[in-house]
Design brief:
Elements: H1 6-12, H2 14-22, E1 24-28, H3 32-44, E2 48-52, H4 77-88, E3 93-97, H5 107-112, E4 116-119, H6 124-136, E5 141-144, E6 157-160, H7 168-179, E7 187-190, E8 202-204, E9 215-217, H8 221-241
Parallel strand pairs: 1-2, 1-4, 2-3, 4-5, 5-7
Antiparallel strand pairs: 6-7, 8-9
Length: 244
Amino acid sequence: MEDRLSRMRLMVGESALKKLEKSHICVVGCGAVGGYVLESLARAGIKHLTLIDFDTISITNINRQLLALNSTIGQKKVDVARQRIADISNDIRVDTLDILINQETVSKIIEIKPDFVVDAIDSLNPKVCLIETLVKNNIPFVSCMGAALKTKANLIQVEKMKNTRNDPLAGFIRKYLRRRGVPLDFKVVYSPELTKDKSKLAMPESAPEKGRVRHQMGSLPTITGIFGLTCAQVALDYLIQCED
């Protein structure tokens, strides 16, 4: 009998599919990278997703974010994500947290006890806070590094954090984590591509609602999509291969 997971079942087998269906994945950040992550996981057979994001959709998101449409501008990303997943399958449990990750809120991820976490945050301090918490609590995860300003799809790869190079975001994260005694053996999706001068490809956000003032940087829909799809594949590989 055919169903929405027939092709997935043919690819990975019934046993692996059952593992995915029993798994709980938390996606932190539902933007350019995170949107592709949650889309892939929902279509792959994951039946319990927790989505975390405090942001709303803006017109500048449309060039690269699956959730961003003219009809969704101004809506909360987690709300749009929930609706989209329900349209993929109404048997997927979707929990949402409309929060900014920081020292006060990060404990919520420990409380929900996910089997795997995908870090798709694009801000330095929340990202460091999340990674430190996941490592210290032995929660399996993959972290996405900088996708902005990248153009070469063939250079996107999975690597251990300690081996990354030519990625300014990864460099800052390594420095902060070393200061805190956090091991750098976790997996990241990143590109070693040398990028152009950021000052020519960045502009300040007009009215940030939370956190520090940030700068918008140029980004391609193809590249951010590949980053997200790669993160999702790391999650699926881990869950299929882990012991029952």
